[in-house]
Amino acid sequence: MNAFSITPVRFTLHALVAGLCLTAAAAHADATLDKIRQQRKVVIGVIVGGGPFGAIDPATQQLVGWNPELARELGKRLGAEVELVQVQPPTRVQFLQSGKVDLLIASMEYTPERGEILGYAPTPFYRVGGSAAVLKDSGISRWEDLRGKTVCASQGSSYSKPLQEQYGAQVRGFKTSSESLLALRGGACVAAVHDATLIHPLLRQQGEWAGYHAPIAGEILPSPSVVWTRKGEADTIAAVDRVVQDWHRSGWLIATEKRLGITPPQALLPELQARFKKPS
User: Is 23 among the domain residues?
Assistant: First the structure.
């Protein structure tokens, strides 16, 4: 996909006038990038559901983990101070569309439906699918085993549609993943389906999760993780995408994944590093 290709034009009077208009427009980026450059500040919405992908440090009350680190590094490379705003699945799109945040790095993977209403940097920074946490004695071992059963998920989760339409589950939505997981432990559902990047680190903690596991092989709806913008913000999209490509080219994402102890390593990252390190 190349959203920024330019077709040749003849230098007629009409083309000259059009060119002057384009030159004038180029002096001003879209509203979001203009604001970031003028105020030297960017507000980024992040989700911190616990674990290495986003949590609150109990000692400092600071947001830490993958999503916050990517947001801070993105702001740094855009030359701006970063304000992080916690968002939740049911409201993250509204926060972006209403201008409460400028960008989203919020565990919201690309889907065609989301791409219709929002803009996004086309180069993904990760790939995530859904996993199901269930009791070890539940007898559930396949996605098909969820047919007719109640499954907990976050409101606005992209996993709800395939769970209902492909596997016949009865999905019960909760405002946050924490509420969904609490409902699972309270017996309100037989499974909680969330990003594998949340489920697997959570279950590895044992403790209160010692009786649970994620036995279903393969993730549901694996999709690319992207930075989201408002629709039509071509300049912001281009600026963000340059940063994401450089993350891959330099190996910064792979190094950050390793430093945060995220396992298993995401296979997409070496693939994209190899692609962007190739001479253009």
Answer: no
CB–CB of 229/240 below 8 Å?
Answer: yes
Close Cβ partners of 209 (under 8 Å, ≥ 6 residues apart): 133, 202, 203
Please name the residue ranges forming H helices in the chain: 13-26, 31-39, 66-77, 92-97, 112-117, 160-165, 177-185, 196-204, 234-250, 252-259, 268-277
Distance of alpha carbon 81 from alpha carbon 107, whole angstroms: 22
User: Tokens 């994209």 identify what position?
Assistant: 272
What digits encode the pLDDT tens for the residues 73-129? 999 999 999 999 999 888 999 999 999 999 999 988 999 999 999 999 999 999 999
- The burial of 5, by beta-carbon neighbours within 10 Å (0-12 exposed, 13-18 middle, 19 or more buried), is given as exposed
Residue 249: CATH number of its domain: 3.40.190.10
Distance CA 143, CA 188 (A): 18
Structural domain containing residue 165: 129-222
Domain edge (last residue) among 222, 246, 267: 222
Is residue 70 within 8 A of residue 269, CB to CB? The reply is no
Q: pLDDT by residue (tens digit) across 151-192?
A: 999 998 999 999 999 999 999 999 988 999 999 999 999 999
Tokens of 136: 């070890």
Percent of residues in the chain assigned helix, strand, coil, to nearest 5: 40, 20, 40
